[in-house]
Here is the input.
Amino acid sequence: MASGCPFGHGAAAAGDHVDPISDDGVYYAEYLGLDKLLTAQHPASAAHGVEAHDEMLFIIIHQTYELWFKQILHELHSVIQIFSQDRIPEKAMGLVVHRLKRIDEIQRILIDQISILETMHPLDFLDFRSFLTPASGFQSFQFRILENLLGIESKHRFQLQKTAYLGYFKAEHQELLRKSEHISLLRLVEKWLERTPFLEFEGWRFKDEFRRTVLQMHQADRDRVSRDAHSTEEHKNLQLQMIDQTIEQFESLFDEEKHAEMVAAGTRRLSIRALQAALLISLYRDEPLFHVPFQILTGLLQLDENISLWRFRHTQMVHRMLGSKIGTGGSSGYRYLKSTTSDRYKVFLDFYNLSSFLIPRSHLPPLPLEAREQLDFYFTMAASPAAPATP
Amino acid sequence: MASGCPFGHGAAAAGDHVDPISDDGVYYAEYLGLDKLLTAQHPASAAHGVEAHDEMLFIIIHQTYELWFKQILHELHSVIQIFSQDRIPEKAMGLVVHRLKRIDEIQRILIDQISILETMHPLDFLDFRSFLTPASGFQSFQFRILENLLGIESKHRFQLQKTAYLGYFKAEHQELLRKSEHISLLRLVEKWLERTPFLEFEGWRFKDEFRRTVLQMHQADRDRVSRDAHSTEEHKNLQLQMIDQTIEQFESLFDEEKHAEMVAAGTRRLSIRALQAALLISLYRDEPLFHVPFQILTGLLQLDENISLWRFRHTQMVHRMLGSKIGTGGSSGYRYLKSTTSDRYKVFLDFYNLSSFLIPRSHLPPLPLEAREQLDFYFTMAASPAAPATP
Amino acid sequence: MASGCPFGHGAAAAGDHVDPISDDGVYYAEYLGLDKLLTAQHPASAAHGVEAHDEMLFIIIHQTYELWFKQILHELHSVIQIFSQDRIPEKAMGLVVHRLKRIDEIQRILIDQISILETMHPLDFLDFRSFLTPASGFQSFQFRILENLLGIESKHRFQLQKTAYLGYFKAEHQELLRKSEHISLLRLVEKWLERTPFLEFEGWRFKDEFRRTVLQMHQADRDRVSRDAHSTEEHKNLQLQMIDQTIEQFESLFDEEKHAEMVAAGTRRLSIRALQAALLISLYRDEPLFHVPFQILTGLLQLDENISLWRFRHTQMVHRMLGSKIGTGGSSGYRYLKSTTSDRYKVFLDFYNLSSFLIPRSHLPPLPLEAREQLDFYFTMAASPAAPATP
Amino acid sequence: MASGCPFGHGAAAAGDHVDPISDDGVYYAEYLGLDKLLTAQHPASAAHGVEAHDEMLFIIIHQTYELWFKQILHELHSVIQIFSQDRIPEKAMGLVVHRLKRIDEIQRILIDQISILETMHPLDFLDFRSFLTPASGFQSFQFRILENLLGIESKHRFQLQKTAYLGYFKAEHQELLRKSEHISLLRLVEKWLERTPFLEFEGWRFKDEFRRTVLQMHQADRDRVSRDAHSTEEHKNLQLQMIDQTIEQFESLFDEEKHAEMVAAGTRRLSIRALQAALLISLYRDEPLFHVPFQILTGLLQLDENISLWRFRHTQMVHRMLGSKIGTGGSSGYRYLKSTTSDRYKVFLDFYNLSSFLIPRSHLPPLPLEAREQLDFYFTMAASPAAPATP
Here is the structure.
């Protein structure tokens, strides 16, 4: 404990009179493996005898991406481990929020640092581009593992030429990728949601209460429209038709068959019970006990949105860098990438779409009294008998 | 040329029907040295048998910093090489602007990504901090080389305990550091500035013209104050005193002796001639020929400011992480770092202070006619006789 | 000149002994119109008697957007004015670069600050959303004017229901919008590009030289493929087919008819001559005289890309906020917005696609000697006879 | 509920067939007060007949700052209101976290958007700077109110010339400022912390337990040093001396007198009991019940750090813009601003310094059993008897 504080670019050892390079102590460069790290840049242009200044940037930015992917996977693995437990302790839920927040901060940087690569002009890229054939950013196995772990399934992937995605990887990476196909944060979160208490509570069933409320609201809407003396018949019919459509949309929350169709069509991912639970948490998020679960839903949504933003930013950069050269298959790199910015690649798509099913707080069916009590903390701070005591 | 486009995370090979993992072609993971890169993380906590989750982040963020430092040095070396030439071709000046812009984009990320490290709480840092003794971020030899190359001299450095800064490094790094002490972008830029044409031009001398103008402006100020009927004597005297002080400040631009005093005191860095040249470029920056030189001055200033911003952000992070533990020397890491955010560590300090000497464009002494003509381009686009021709 | 420095949040008057609130002087709050500005927030929820905390954020963030739109229009108008001149002085070109850079910095903030609005949860939006009917962000007339001024034409716009876009605006704004439809930065830039010298130069014609070079390169590619002893016939044919497709793509640069087809299809915007000029500038950007023109092309591309990024970020936020409620027309706000992130809304689309036509510097046809001389500056700094003189 | 979604820049009314500009509905431009907002820019240069292009930027960026200050104050007022309650419900604590997070997002933008103003060169500022005398950014009453509400006291302020800070404001703003001096988030948070349960708990007293632990750790350190056979006497003494200093520092946590001295010296702000509570929360933050309180401490620290970052960034910008003109008082705007980046202006200084007092989790004295139970939630999700039920 008496030891100084390492790291902090100069913070170190300041007044500690410790020999800064003692043989048995840790040395910055060794600790960080800088001998490996700073000698891992091998420009292909130099190997071909025509060194291109900008290839160094190209290598280094990709290396920082890969380091950050490793870090994201580190956090993601710990989140997955937590969600893999049968009974997730409250303590662990706090960690999930914290680690999702960290992933968010990393992703912000991943998105922003594309600006660095954009300082490389297409003409400068041409100086070494041909030496890299047939390597492709698609071969970032860490990013593909990330997609797999989150829950993107093979069937959602657009296929490049006729090669299945595994065909782009060497054997050792194929193995890693295959392993990651068997884990899915989406499915773990689904299970966790399905276990949410209060979906049923001593006779009170959320889905019934919610459905009744929604129907009442729509009926009130219908009545208001029908009574409207200033409106034409045509306009009224149009409005009633819209209300009916909205009801129909809401019904997909309760109707297993409709839900199954949407799952088959790829517009829904979660089970109907998990979806209802996510809705419950979103609607009653002000309840203290739902505070952390709601932060988790929001964190997962943010993670997903950040990937979309990164994909889009990346796509624009590629458009600048490569134009829209058309290949024999009629497709271009730019077009492939653009396709991945669609909803098809959103893992937590249901959390986005949840907003369609929110109703104003003022209309929310009240939770049963007992549930409310359990949702509040047993112990609130200010109530502590010890509080007024003086130190 | 027929080859596909490598990289772009999926942009690749899309329609190219090339085998994506042919044996003689380039493979993403190999090109980037991922086997080295992704196995270069060795948490000390794990080695001590008490794995701390957050140490991975600590290692990886420092590694990304070191990678980016390498990239900045790559750009800086090319800029230094350009400025080392006796006669710098115009083409090269464009490159300097471009590479300074790239450094700026990198630095923005270096500053912003501190937010990632701040997701590590001090208590989490404690889990592995003691294993790192006596390593220190001060031992980032790449950052120290960067400082040296820019032009920070040993005499400007605050000393940590009694150890000279080289004492923090192992032999191989000491050698690199010593070599970098002999190169200084500041001094190269100084020489380049001293060669600026138009400081003297067939009898017209910028410094004389500028000085005369400034004195006239101040005299007009004095007259206005003296004539002011609404002002008390006391107020007038105060104002006259202020004008005199301003004149005195301006005189430091022309007075070799005063200038030398300021250099000795560390409040000025450049030679008086280089300073005048920087002022000339700043004042007449609208002239096309000064367009690029002015972008260079601005780029260097930005680089310096970014380092200051990074230092300060870093300092705040360290304050959060370590508090202000007081060492035996009465100093703390936080305090040392804070000291480096002072003007003493600004290399291009004179470019900041230049603003004190600007005068409104409307008062600028006109450049001699011939100089103006040479400053404009010989050939302007719209004047091209070829222009009206149809394709 | 003796006066203190206003503004800088405290920078003021520090040692100047001026009365900080003299009656005839400028007062911060008055100068900025804060009485108007800070009383221009009128939450509709409060007016309806159910104040929603988050509506203030909703209003204020939209107000900052509108202020920044005003600033972007201010810069854009000055750029348009410059490009409207028949003969654009070099000085002015520097200004264009500078102002595009400023727009870039503003746009970065516009994109990033969406994160602020995303702290408003959909349920909080519900608290006041219904009070805003039928107002729409589409009614930001400043943003629509911006689109018009850049060069988005009515025919490129996706139509909302059956109402033409002007139908969303009140009379005074319709007038402003109509006026802005007659100005197009795209068209002005096109004219400027068409006047580029060196497209023809005393018998040397860029398009002929470039075309010849490209055909030679492709012929070399064909020969290499045909001679390849290790390749199967099938593979060879595939490769030759690809080369032919590339040639065909290049031909669209020279063939007026093909070009016209692409313009009609909306995949090209500029005239063929302007496109060739843009290509010329991009290929020979290292020549000093092309330095500034190339910065302008890059600046315009960046502006366009930033709008795309903003649209996409905005779209994601709307998806979170509103889900994907399906309207009677079968369309949702989210889907409409998503459609605007397509290439159809890229004004400087041709500058993106230019990359498809770049060839390595090593293959570039040399500029004719005289042109090269004129492209370099008449006067380079270090050549100044005055340079070696001592101060 | 059938109504469309307003706002979302185009999201609107898409398929809703509502007349977008009905007379009784809300119109975007009116809702946002755009007639006021977009006519509130009055460049002084134009009034003086010499319109300076860049003054518009100067006005608009300051206006966006003021709008955001208003928003921050809006959030801050709600936080203050929550902390003003005697018994703060758990629900409200969640809101505090949420609103601090929003302030954080706003502050990130305030810091970043300084880059926009830096596109204005000092020479361009000179074009209108003299027209603004004697206005000063220091006169941003909203920012001064923000400082007051947070808890910066008059005695901590550096004085500009001899004028007390109120002297810079007109009567109506002085009144607002005076009112804000009586509210202090720092003091409210202090009271809240003092009420933290578990500082004493049925005979278990945190401060006693913690102190005992720390003393044991230090004794162990002393023993280790004394026993070290490889160390010289001199080195041993130095180390023992350091340990003793550390103990002394820790004692300031328990010694009312020492604490009072530090408060008087301005190096501490909170009461000793509040400080102990903040330490307790930080050390045991993994306990679910401390999750939200710890998020609050972190949020307040972040808010404070962001202000520091903004001040520093602002200071650098002013240095660029104004140089370091020396006033009669020997002070410059730049120097004044720089002084505000010191610890003196950190309101939640104690939260930074808390890190000095953290000890590794492995050494933490266990909470008494009963306390632990109460700290965990009464009800954990997975334990719900309802959970296994099928929908």
In short: The radius of gyration of chain A is 27 Å. The first helix of chain A runs from residue 28 to 31.
